[in-house]
Amino acid sequence: MKLKFTKMQGCQNDYIYVQSCAPVPNPELVAVRMSNRHTGVGSDGLILLEDSAVADVKMRIFNADGSEGRMCGNGVRCAAEYLFLNGLVKGCIAQVETVSGVRRVERLAPGLLRVEMGQPDFSPASVSVRERQKPMVEELIEVNGGALRVTCLSMGNPHCVVFVPDVSRLDLGMLGAGFSRCALFCQGINVEFVQITGPNSMRVRVWERGSGETMACGSGACAALAAAVRTGRMSMGQEVRVELPGGALTVCWGADGITLTGDAARVFTGEMEL
Known about the structure:
Blueprint: E1 2-10, E2 13-19, H1 27-35, E3 45-50, E4 57-63, E5 68-69, H2 73-85, E6 93-98, E7 101-109, E8 112-118, E9 139-143, E10 146-154, E11 158-163, H3 172-181, E12 190-198, E13 201-208, E14 212-214, H4 218-230, E15 239-244, E16 247-254, E17 257-263, E18 265-273
Parallel strand pairs: 2-3, 4-6, 11-12, 13-15
Antiparallel strand pairs: 1-2, 1-18, 3-4, 4-5, 6-7, 7-8, 8-17, 9-10, 10-11, 12-13, 13-14, 15-16, 16-17
């Protein structure tokens, strides 16, 4: 079986996009094979673009390990840019259906898009935290035998935010593996390590469940801002520059929710024998 694909990236968070009228068999296995950076195309995961009854397209996300995700801010922008590049929507607005709901995306310019990510949810149920009744805000938990103060929330997918003095000094592989083993998060967790660098700027490194450390995470950038506002480190209504290893994103939490602005680009198209 040959599968046609388009590789796209937003802030160097790269995904393989497959548009198909017929279901792709065993998408979990396809994601693992195609995402491999040595024997496949190489990516942080696979995104299937399917017909939608409520939006311009339905997007299904499969991480590099084959697990299915619920939301991807960079992936949504790239999905919308795919529609614009291929003439599948008119004007500058695209609606993208995800497992976590429909997201409205505005194309500000070719390759520059803003997505409405919705309101953050700080309830323990939204991040599948065991035995918690109240939001986890600046709560101490044990990871790798040490204590870390965390703030947990959902941006359509679960996030755990840790504020640190310097993200460049972290052993993210060790810390990320520790969070992956943490029994507190029964469905796994995405972890953002955040360094506040100014009144409207921050640096972030991300450990994504199912993919490990990535160059960027759009929903993670939103989670970082939401946690910063909730803990009094930043204010609502201000545009914040979030610097990640793959580039910068602009995030703002206003009355209607959080918006995420950043690049989205086609890298190449191809065909792979499965």
